[in-house]
């Protein structure tokens, strides 16, 4: 493995750098592991234009499905970021009834270089193994515009459609308690679902920026795949 190197940069915020990277390289493959500056949320990582991606979708027996755990075993060295969904357990517990999922059970990308932030000390640097690509990114960021488009796309409260009512949520709680009592599970994430239309001329990056402004979290993240799937904040755990 090539030696990891570091290039210091003049401080600017993660929002500014993320906006610059998206403008320079495009949003596809962009990853953003975010923080809020607290003791737990001190560090931020940004990556764009991955040099390698791995995507697995489907359950055992589905046409074209691939085993996400086997794919993880075969990863090359480097900085990988992405997600492994709960539904990936279909490959380790095939006897259970797993629902089909439109999202990949594994999507992960290797970035070199990456951009790192220390929010508490306001330090910014680029980290990688190729001095040429690192220097090129430093030069591109130094000359890229730093202005952020803050034009709002307001969404009225009555524009939301709620797919979970009070009774449905209460029934979900009762069912979870029954499953716990029966020993069939020890943890469940029960959510209420609602949806609205996001303006077609707005980006996933803009949506994430607006969410983090109103709901800062020590651990949050954005992943934009080649198909522009996005995983907004905030997961209880993350890996990068």
What report would you give on this structure?
The protein has 240 residues and is α+β, with helices and mostly antiparallel strands. It has two domains: 174 residues, Anthranilate synthase (4-Layer Sandwich), CATH 3.60.120.10; 43 residues, no CATH class. It is 24% helix and 21% strand. It has a six-stranded antiparallel β-sheet. It has a three-stranded antiparallel β-sheet with strand order 4-6-5, with no helix packed on it. The chain has a two-stranded antiparallel ribbon with strand order 9-10. The radius of gyration is 20 Å and the shape is globular. The two termini are 18 Å apart. The C terminus is likely disordered.
How many separate domains make up the residues? 2
- The total count of strands amounts to 11
Helix run count:
5
Which homologous superfamily in CATH is the superfamily of the largest domain?
Anthranilate synthase
Strand content: 15-25%
Low-pLDDT windows of residues: 236-240
**Computed CA radius of gyration, to the nearest angstrom:** 20 Å
Q: What is the averaged pLDDT score?
A: 89
In spatial order, strands of the major sheet run 1-8-7-3-2-11
